[in-house]
């Protein structure tokens, strides 16, 4: 296939005529509850560019929500998938198993930030991994309660909706929610002004007083909160919580679904915290765009589930496993963790310059290529969701795929493919900061 030029190009307005045609077909066929940020439709993608149906070339600052870290259609992933799909699409690992699943489990054991004997079970989506991590923790402990943090996001299924904090759009009208899920305060330094020790004390008080350590099967947290606003907890917060879990026989689950696989400048974000979880959940960046998720944890916890208790028809599909092995080996050979750290340096410098001129950029935060700005009213610090949406919309119309997030809807997040060029990255961020300045 011809190379996709790595430059932004507006052939038409966005949405162009073909995108408008598709929007019409969509309105009468696709469920209204499924929404899209971009008004246009993709046809192909490579590294930092997504090309749409009208021949527009968009700068990708989203990676399909932290999925195509190795680039969409990365050559090694394409080769591996094409070979695998021609040999064997599916047998179901629970019926007739195959090597790829085992190879992914071995790779996860090697890379996960947990020492000792590890085991892995594979699934299709992030939510499914989280559900299964909770099932495993409950079997292992014989307890039922699960704690999750304020601003948490863990998925959209019944159990994971209960774990997710934000009502609109994720939970609104969808109750009742799974029982025995408890919400505790976390650490949001920009807004709560607490250091790690104080924030952890606050969390632990709620754990002990409202739930009771002896009832708690698991505590789940994202080492950097994703949908909740790219919130980096105060230093020492996660370590203290992990230690408390250990002291109380509570399974500590790090949800690395968004932070994992080189995204934050390490294989997993827990590594920055010097923390060893009992279980990690992975998905998103794991397989270069193919659907795959994993639960990886200490053997004694993972193996407490009875035979046949875990699985799924498509869980750990041979095609997704082949894609994962190729994506991971691309991350290794191109040292994409290092690339994520370079991206952080470049983007943070650019954003700091913008912040000096524009106090509505309240905070710049994140790690590696998982970066965000929180937009506020400079006088009061109040979240400014309207500015956020208007600026993001303007950047999208200018040909930059721009994602927002945050409990208060006032965060613009940057999740570029790790293979994006410096030039495209700087141009894309420039479009966003100009859009903010122009509102
Ligand atoms: C995206 C995400 C999930 C859910 O993954 P899906 O594949 O959408 O089900 C869970 N946890 C975190 C931290 C996520 O970012």
UniProtKB/TrEMBL annotation:
Enzyme Commission code(s) on record: 2.6.1.19, 2.6.1.22
UniProt cross-references to CDD domains, sorted A to Z: OAT_like
Catalytic activity annotation: (S)-3-amino-2-methylpropanoate + 2-oxoglutarate = 2-methyl-3-oxopropanoate + L-glutamate; 4-aminobutanoate + 2-oxoglutarate = succinate semialdehyde + L-glutamate
Known cofactor(s): pyridoxal 5'-phosphate
Enzyme class per UniProt: transferase
A biological process term (GO) from this entry: gamma-aminobutyric acid metabolic process
Short name of one Pfam family: Aminotran_3
Pathway named in the protein's UniProt entry: Amino-acid degradation; 4-aminobutanoate degradation
Keywords tagged on the record: Aminotransferase, Pyridoxal phosphate, Transferase
GO molecular function: (S)-3-amino-2-methylpropionate transaminase activity; 4-aminobutyrate:2-oxoglutarate transaminase activity; identical protein binding; pyridoxal phosphate binding
Stated family: Belongs to the class-III pyridoxal-phosphate-dependent aminotransferase family.
NCBIfam families in UniProt: GABAtrnsam, PRK06058.1
Protein name: (S)-3-amino-2-methylpropionate transaminase
Species per Swiss-Prot/TrEMBL record: Nesterenkonia sedimenti
């Amino acid at each position: 296939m011809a190379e996709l030029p790595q430059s932004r190009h507006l052939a038409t307005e966005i949405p162009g005529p073909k995108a408008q045609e598709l929007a019409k077909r969509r309105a009468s066929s696709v469920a209204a509850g499924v929404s899209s940020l971009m008004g246009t439709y993709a046809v192909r993608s490579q590294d930092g560019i997504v090309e749409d149906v009208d021949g527009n070339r968009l700068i990708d600052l989203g990676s399909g929500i932290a999925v195509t870290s190795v680039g969409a259609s990365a050559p090694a992933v394409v080769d591996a998938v094409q070979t695998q799909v021609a040999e064997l699409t599916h047998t179901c690992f629970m019926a007739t198993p195959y090597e790829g699943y085992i190879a992914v489990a071995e790779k996860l054991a090697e890379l996960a930030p947990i020492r000792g004997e590890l085991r892995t079970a594979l699934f299709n989506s992030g939510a499914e991994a989280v559900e299964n991590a909770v099932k495993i923790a409950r079997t292992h402990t014989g307890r039922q309660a699960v704690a999750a943090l304020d601003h948490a996001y863990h998925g959209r299924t019944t159990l994971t909706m209960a774990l997710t904090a934000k009502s609109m759009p994720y939970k609104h009208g969808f109750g009742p929610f799974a029982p025995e899920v408890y919400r505790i305060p976390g650490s949001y330094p920009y807004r709560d002004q607490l250091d790690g020790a104080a924030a952890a004390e606050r969390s632990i008080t709620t754990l002990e007083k409202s739930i009771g350590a002896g009832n708690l099967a698991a505590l789940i947290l994202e080492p950097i909160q994703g949908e909740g606003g790219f919130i980096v907890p105060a230093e020492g917060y996660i370590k203290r919580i992990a230690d408390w879990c250990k002291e109380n026989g509570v399974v500590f689950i790090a949800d690395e679904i968004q932070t994992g696989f080189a995204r934050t400048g390490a294989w997993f974000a827990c590594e920055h915290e010097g923390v060893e979880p009992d279980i990690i959940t992975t998905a998103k960046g794991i397989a270069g765009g193919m659907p795959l998720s994993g639960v990886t944890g200490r053997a004694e916890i993972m193996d407490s589930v009875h035979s046949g208790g875990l699985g799924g028809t498509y869980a750990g599909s041979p095609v997704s496993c082949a894609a994962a092995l190729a994506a991971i080996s691309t991350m290794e050979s191109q040292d994409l963790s290092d690339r994520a750290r370079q991206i952080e340096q470049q983007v943070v410098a650019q954003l700091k310059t913008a912040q000096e001129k524009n106090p509505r950029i309240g905070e710049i935060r994140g790690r590696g290529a998982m970066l965000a700005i929180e937009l506020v009213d400079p006088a009061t610090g109040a979240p400014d969701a309207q500015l956020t949406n208007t600026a993001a919309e303007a950047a999208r119309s200018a040909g930059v795929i721009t994602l927002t997030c945050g409990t208060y809807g006032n965060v613009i997040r940057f999740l570029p493919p790790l293979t994006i060029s410096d030039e495209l990255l700087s141009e894309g961020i420039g479009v966003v900061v100009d859009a903010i300045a122009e509102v």
